Amino acid sequence: MRSHYCGQLNETMVDQTVTLCGWVHRRRDHGGVIFLDMRDRDGIAQVVVDPDTAEAFANADRARNEYVLRIVGRIRLRPEGTQNPNMPTGMIEVLAKDVEVLNTAATPPFQLDEHGKVGEEIRLKHRYIDLRRPEMIDKLRLRSRISHTVRAYLENQGFLDIETPILTRATPEGARTTWCPAAPMRAASSRCRNRRSFSSSC
Name one GO biological process term (predicted). Predict the structure, then answer.
């Protein structure tokens, strides 16, 4: 699907052909040339789409923020004066030769780089968007590393990772036991023509 993450691209990869997958962070149309800031969990990379590649240009033209795209293109240095030293990938860009729309998206309720101006209630309601922010991704990555380190240490010490059922006592007006009807089963004796229905706890 992809050959690299967006944040992995750098000047040493000039003239290499790469495949990127990610969200459209921003889209800009400058005199017929479309610029896409592609974002994934690793960072942001600028993609340039020329009208010479008709199909790729048409797909890029209809792309909007948070569309999911697959980009195939060649890495090149940015022209003098357009470089961005504040970005890890600010010295290069990807000249796209193929743009594929993997998924469309409705207009997001807030921009990911403007989350500070949005109330917490809206961010929690649209949590699936809020979790795409770099700050949240860093926290998820840290949590994953901590969990992996603890589990690896305990496993090396001979512990077994066992997930047991959670047992809770029934409470009045609380969680209720649900019974699901099972398929009717024929009685064991062949002389008995009656069928008995059994129920099992879900």
Answer: aspartyl-tRNA aminoacylation
3-state secondary structure string across 78-118: CCCCCCCCCCCCCCEEEEEEEEEEEECCCCCCCCHHHHHHC
User: How far is residue 25's CA from residue 87's CA, in Å, rounded to a whole number?
Assistant: 14
CA distances from 127 to 17, 18, 19, 131, 135 (A): 35, 31, 28, 6, 13
pTM of the model: 0.73
Q: What is the pLDDT of residues 149-200, one digit of tens each?
A: 999 999 999 999 888 877 666 666 655 555 555 555 555 544 544 444 444 4
Which percentage of the chain shows pLDDT scores above 90?
66
Query: What would the CATH number be for the domain defined by 6-103?
Result: 2.40.50.140
